[in-house]
Amino acid sequence: MRIEIPREAERFGANHIYGVQKVYELDSGLRQDAPASENSVIQNLPYETLYEIERDMAIVVPIRDERLKLLEGVLFGIPHQCTVIIVSNSRRAPVDRFKMEQDAVETWSRFTQKQLLLVHQKDPFIARALAEAGYPYILDENDLVANGKAEGMIVATLLARILGKRYIGFIDADNYFPGAVYEYVHEYAAGFALSKSPYTMVRIAWHSKPKVVQSQLFFAKYGRTSVVTNRFLNQLISYYTGFETEVIRTGNAGEHAMTMELAMLLDYATGYAIEPYHYIDLLEKYGGVIESAHPEVMQHQVNVFQIESRNPHLHESKGEEHIDDMILASLQVIYHSKICPEPIKREVLRELYRRGILSKGEEPAPPRIYPALLHVDLEAFRDA
Questions:
Q1: Is the terminal CB of the chain with fewer CB neighbours within 10 Å at N or C?
Q2: Three-point CA angle 191, 239, 365, nearest 5°
Q3: Contact 80, 51 (CB under 8 A)
Q4: Helix axis angle, 320-335 relative to 274-286, nearest 10°?
């Protein structure tokens, strides 16, 4: 892959948030084909470099009642060298959709000779393992893992950890283009290859999101939720730096990846808040505004790469109510952040009132936050 070096970076304490990087060649060949010298602003990452990183990477596909053809397409796009972890929270009745997913995945695995993990989020053995490992926080009143994307991602992260993976990436199951999935994984690996820190996150900025407008395809640049979330995250950074910025372009990026060292240190917000909360958690823990509990991370740095994909991103349309729910969840975590100042809180409320998501005088409810996985007893989890 040929990718440009970051044009800009916002430094917020130990966090280095890099501006969006463009990819100039998705496959730049083998190491032996690389030219002797490279343009100083373009980094060449040969196939072997990406392959070696992807061999140590788990790709997590959370799914809940998605169309089987979409799941199959996502699996087709994941490079063979990656380990796949599917965490399903699909219905078991009246039709057992999880059994349908299992049959489809087993057929695919037989043809591709690929190893993978497929688990159901409500499996009582997983709940028991979490309890015995000292992490009961995501269990519900029935002592099963609660519903929610974040809860499934937490389960997958622990599974990847006990498999000894160094990197973990997430890809939503409702993606229509297998080629986009293939590209995302290579871009995750590219970000890790460029980083010199063990605490690294890579987030995908979509090149476009196609939609049908007046019987024609229109390639929108930004999602409707992302525009709102990015604006407020950038305002939060600008408040402390004193310089206006638009560096954050991936506030709601479901397609993102982390080094395992960072994944184990992050707190997690439930529901649609999980992706924007990654930013908030990094700003709170390592931004220098409040004292950090991890001075060793402050001595390194946390690198956040945002890489623009070349494939368009087409996924299931879930309606206006879904958009409002995502905006509310995103702004909740900003509003209730320990470092959110009063002027930005007032702006958040005005936005929610203007959109009719909240009534005048209402405040967004505090998000549910799960603690980091750092102190989970991995041996107990593995044994259970």
A1: C
A2: 85
A3: no
A4: 10
